Amino acid sequence: MKLPASMRAMVLDTGQNRLQLKQLPIPQPSPQQLLIRVHACGVCRTDLHIVDQELTEPKLPLIPGHEIVGTVVLAGEQTTRFRPGDRVGVPWLGYTCGECRYCRKGQENLCDHARFTGYTLDGGFAEYTVADQRYCFHLPPGFDDTKAAPLLCAGLIGYRTYRLAGSQIEHLGIYGFGAAAHIVTQIAVHQGKKVYAFTRPGDTEAQDFARRMGATWAGASTEMPPHPLDAALIFAPVGELIPAALQATDKGGHVVSGGIHMSDIPAFPYRLLWEERKVSSVANLTRRDGEELLDLAHRVPVHTEIETFALEQANEALDRLRSGRIEGAAVLVMD
After folding, report:
1. Taking the C-alpha atoms of 142, 82, 68 and 114 in order, what is their torsion angle to the nearest 10 degrees?
2. Average pLDDT over residues 123-135
3. CA dihedral 248, 326, 155, 333 (to 10 degrees)
4. pLDDT average, residue stretch 215-226
5. How far apart are CA 142 and CA 303, in angstroms?
6. Closest CA to 188 of 91, 296, 82
7. What is the value of pTM for the model shown?
8. 282: number of CA atoms within 13 Å, CB side?
9. Which of 20, 30, 192, 304 lies 20 to 30 Å from 273 when distance is taken between CA atoms?
10. In whole angstroms, how far apart are CA 240 and each of 192, 245, 272?
11. What is the percent of the chain where pLDDT is above 70?
């Protein structure tokens, strides 16, 4: 395949909080990497945290984007898992060392030397990208490029958050009903759980969306659900939701925060934590999470609600996400 001389990319530069459309050289794959023609890339809340400088250590200049779907056009000489023409997905976790104590314990999501797509590695807000073959996924049939993109972070982090909440769940609360929540809700309902969705007060559109996805009940985050929760997942980056979720959670319940960034958690009385309730967070993902989620998404099957934007509309997509005006997930399309 003859490659063009350059590619279009949306780039974050030092001191900027808007992405700039630039013409850049096409990256060259190292021996373990794939050169991928990007077809679609999801726009994640993590991208928003990076642009808004709430995550403070990106490589700059940076091409964001870590929900990448594309086709392999070149494979490095040491690659074995993919060939040119294969459709692949690229997630947030882009590299681990394999040698630190976390990697040796099977906790590669906590690797001391991890690198992340669209944060410390250039990502998918571009027509081409490179990625380490070891951290790419074969994508399940039944999902076109745009529908598959949200699975690669919203789906993966949502699934890990859901899995860490425990298996003995009948009544599941979800705070913040966006891209991750609408995927997790479908999985939980498929597995026989009752889902209670919490949104910003007055956001009746998000509440209607939650019910369409299968939620038993939907209301404001200031309300109590009609039944105590066995577990609560928090996807909105709002620290005040931790005590609110604890108050709604039954004895022995688990509140899990799935975000990479959250505003400060306010003080709360010990009685909310007592009776063996617990609070934990989720960091990154493992390749096992990806394999399990993609298989499960195919079998449920999960339906991803998306709104598409052209590559050069990335700032508009981020603005819409910031103001809560995306139903489901935003996806950039390159073709």
Report:
1. 130
2. 98
3. -170
4. 97
5. 10
6. 296
7. 0.93
8. 26
9. 192
10. 29, 9, 13
11. 100
Domain with CATH 3.90.180.10 in the chain: 6-151+305-333
Contacts of 46 (CB under 8 A, 6+ apart): 55, 66, 92, 118, 119, 153, 260, 261
Q: Tokens 């007060």 appear where?
A: 201
CA-nearest of 65, 154, 41 to 116 is 65
pLDDT at residue 45 in the model? 92
Dihedral pair phi/psi, residue 159, rounded to 5°: -65, -45
Q: Are 321 and 43 in contact (CB under 8 A)?
A: yes
pLDDT (tens digit per residue) in 74-98? 999 999 999 999 999 999 999 999 9
Percent of the chain having pLDDT more than 90? Answer: 94
Mean pLDDT value of segment 121-131: 98
Cα separation, 209 vs 328, whole angstroms: 9
Local confidence band at 142 (pLDDT 50, 70, 90 cut-offs): confident
Segment 107-127 shows an average pLDDT of 97
Which pLDDT score, from 0 to 100, does residue 290 have? Answer: 94
Q: Check if the beta carbon of residue 186 is closer than 8 Å to that of residue 215.
A: no
Residue type, 206: A
Beta-carbon contacts of residue 51 (< 8 Å; ≥ 6 apart) = 12, 17, 18, 19, 64, 318
Q: Which two tokens stand for residue 115?
A: 């690198």
Report pLDDT for 1.
65
Q: Which CATH number fits domain 156-281: 1.20.120.140, 3.40.50.720, 2.60.40.60, 1.10.510.10?
A: 3.40.50.720
Mean pLDDT, rounded, for 205-218: 97
The two tokens of residue 229 are 């929760």
Where residue 154 falls among pLDDT bands split at 50, 70, 90? very high
- The phi, psi pair for 320, rounded to 5°, reads -65, -40
Quote helix, strand, coil % in the chain, to nearest 5: 30, 30, 45
What tokens appear for 92 in the block? 């947030």
Domain 6-151+305-333 fold is Quinone Oxidoreductase; Chain A, domain 1 (3.90.180)
Span(s) in the chain for CATH 3.40.50.720: 156-281
Q: Which two tokens stand for residue 250?
A: 């039954």
